[in-house]
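User: Can you predict the 3D structure for this chain?
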Amino acid sequence: MRRRSGFGWLELVIGIVLIGLGVLAFARPDLALTGLVFAYGVAAVVMGVADLILFIQVERYTGFGPMLSLVSGVLSVMSGLMLAAFPGTGVIVLTVLFPIWFIAHCVSRLAHLGHIRFVAGEGIYWFTLIVNLIGLLMGVLMVFRPLFALSTLRFLAAAYLILLGVDSVVMAVSRMGMRR
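Assistant: Here is the predicted structure, written as structure tokens:
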């Protein structure tokens, strides 16, 4: 029987897409916010699907983590579809949905830190912990300061998308050596 590669192809693709979106947001600040809203919507759908796949993979475990993946995945897909379908309206709604998405995704990743430490090692564990704590802080800040979210969303999102992308790529590459 042929063994499946441990390389996380979906995680790698997500990482590359997120890094690309983050770099695009930094490199072309003159782009219309509606274009970025559409791109963030697509990223949210992709990340939501990844969270749902993670839920399916770890549903046999009990506890808080798998359920957070389900909730995070559903919220991400719903938010992403809304942003992609209505980017003009999404600019206004984004000041509320984007921080919630940040928070939901970060809490989901933080809930899986034990699994990440086991699968990927101590270094990636700490990197994921720090990136997601920063994202959680940014999400909370955006909830309580909506004008801050609207005015700095592009730069915060660009930086965080790059960090999330790097985190996803690192996780994908680290899986390569985990399966025998």
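The mean pLDDT is 76. Residues 75 and 101 are 7 Å apart (CA to CA).
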